[in-house]
Amino acid sequence: MHLSKQSITLSVLASALSLGMIASAHAAEDSATFQVRIVIQESCTISATAPTDIDFLSHTRSTGAPVTATGTLNVNCSAGTPYAIGLTGGVNSAADAAAPAAGDRRMFSGGAYVPYDLYRDGGFSNFWGNTTAVNMQTGTGNAASQTYTVHGRVPSTNFPAGTYTDTVTARVVY
Questions:
Q1: Which pLDDT tens digit goes with each residue over 150-172?
Q2: Omega of the bond prior to 51 within 30 degrees of 0, cis?
Q3: How far apart are CA 96 and CA 92, in angstroms?
Q4: Which of 66, 77, 82, 106 has its Cβ near the most Cβ atoms within 10 Å?
Q5: Pairwise CA distance, residues 114 & 33, whole Å
Q6: DSSP code per residue over 20-79
């Protein structure tokens, strides 16, 4: 039997393929899927960074005009988060400290009180209280600190001499 060089080469090639010695021209493939996720929760913080106090300064006793002063609050809420900022009536409130009405707030010194009110505007027409959808300052978070001015007003300084104080709590609801 006479074999040609070509037939020997084909025979060797066929044997190698059957034994898996030569890799296929097409690789095998498989795939799998996976998820990528993140949970972003709404969040808000409120702070009173300097200057925060509403300081009506020193005045002589008189029946004069009202005295005004301002302070600031900073709120930082995640982007797109709606919020409302409330201010309590203070520890010396004449009524419900949690839900004050205009005229309820007062500062105290040695048995005497000086009334005051807090407002969301410098025109003193938007009372700043602590009742949702009634008298709280509203906004929408932008992932940066947002500053709000608190406007205070004392109707008169015709009260006994003393250093009058009160403590108000600011809260953010989101």
A1: 999 999 888 888 999 999 999 99
A2: yes
A3: 10
A4: 77
A5: 69
A6: T-S--SS-----------------EEEE-PSS---------S-S-S-EEEEEEEEEEE-T
Question: Within a 10 A sphere around the Cβ of 164, how many other Cβ atoms?
Answer: 19
pLDDT digits (tens, 9 = 90+) for 5-44: 555 454 544 555 455 555 556 788 877 777 777 676 888 8
* Tokens describing residue 26: 């097409």
Look up the pTM and report it. Answer: 0.75
Tokens for 23? 């890799």
Sign of torsion, CA 86 92 97 101? Answer: negative
CA atoms of 118 and 151, how far apart (whole Å): 6
